[in-house]
Input
Amino acid sequence: MPIRLAYQIIIILSQWILQIVSIFLPKEGKISKMLFGRKTSLKKLEQLPDKSRKRIWAHAASLGEYQMLLPLLFELEKKYDIEIHISFFSSSGYEHAENPGNWSFYYIQHDTHQKAKRFISLLKPDLTIFAKYEFWLNHLNGLNQRNIPFIYWNTLLREGHFLNKFWAQPWRKELNKALAICCQNQNTLNRVSQILPNTRPILTGDIRFLQTAEWLNTPDIFDSEIDRLLNSQKNIIWGSSWEEELKILIKIWPLNKNKYRFIVAPHDVSEKNLSEIETQLPGSFQRLSQWLIAPKPDVILLVDGIGKLRFLYRYAALAIIGGGFSNALHNIIEPLSNGVPVLFGDNHDKFPEAQDAIDFKAAIHGKTPEALSESLSFLLFHEGQDLRLTYHRERALEFFGMNMPKMDAVIPLCDLPLTK
Output
């Protein structure tokens, strides 16, 4: 059976399965929201007025990929008279992405030939931008059939990616017609050059660094008194922490004696998880929401809401980032942007910036929580700790700066067809 036909059958079957399963799932669940959102997105597109300007369709799987698109889309809005239309795969992106302007949001359609054709024929984009590695075969085919140029933005291809497989020839055929593929690193550029010889790979660097740099200019959310209190003591932050990182805090707590303020920001801020963490904290603690109103001295701060962690990094001397022992490493770029050295577990193979930061002495990793505890203890509680922290802080700032993409150099290379 030809691969395209097999793919079409699999996609159709998966669509039927999702529709059947959704009958037994809550209407507020992710699957139900996605299926309903796809229907309403088509209706919304049917009411789209005729375009009077060049139209960009940008697609992101979820919120993180959408944020990668923002620096490019903002720059294009400055340079060209355009409409911007965003599609998402997941409800988390569709519901939580902030709309910075008069942009339109949709759900991408199930990747059947018919639905992809319908979506594209209604939207009529002049340029399509895919974030990272959204390789939807029938949507790509639909664009190529209509000679609609497309690029890939902030793409990262690791060793063993499916595009290297013999059965991925249909994907390679469509991707070979890309206007440009903007690559996070040299390894990705090399792989694109090998498997897609007819397209143009461009080395941009990791766009997340650029997006994070823009966040640095965001006004602080804390008032002057809280700002003074946070600056009154060196802060060690457990960012997006899991159980393994909490074990590190418990292990080194006896050494601290209120020398540093420990701030714990769990990856899961549900009441159930917060209550469980509170039973394990070794010292006096206070939830951040309470501390902001009536701060107590010499307590472990437990962050009990979302949206505050990246502002807290501005006050950190060091950060232990979660996920490296249990799931997948969380964001290390945010703390590094503030000159905050980071420590994390060994599960970071999918995040090339992590190994780069280690090599540059902006980060330290450990194979086990016990090993990372020893590294953290040495950094904080042995003679010369201030000099060590200053050294790693300087390395973090330099590492962040040297990885900053240059948008004014990237956009001309893409040769985007947006002028009238």
Remarks:
- The longest helix spans residues 3-22.
- The mean pLDDT is 92.
- The radius of gyration is 24 Å.
